[in-house]
């Protein structure tokens, strides 16, 4: 706890802000499809969210679910062979 906010200490020693369930969807949307969004895959999205400074315990599975539900990624993404 620091100034009323909960943080998680990463492996590199950085403090990552723990976000709530409501904020998690907004963070995923902004990183994935926001103004500078790149529509990346699930694991890459979770890594980019961590580098942005946010954390929650099931980030990787939430990021994968978010990418699967992204309509633009499903329509315009590469088709696996």
TrEMBL record:
Gene3D superfamilies, per the entry: 1.10.340.70
Lineage: Eukaryota, Viridiplantae, Streptophyta, Embryophyta, Tracheophyta
Signal peptide: none
InterPro entries named among the record's database cross-references: Integrase_H2C2 (IPR041588)
Domain Integrase zinc-binding intervals: 21-75
Name recorded for this polypeptide: Integrase zinc-binding domain-containing protein
One Pfam family, short name: Integrase_H2C2
Domain of life: Eukaryota
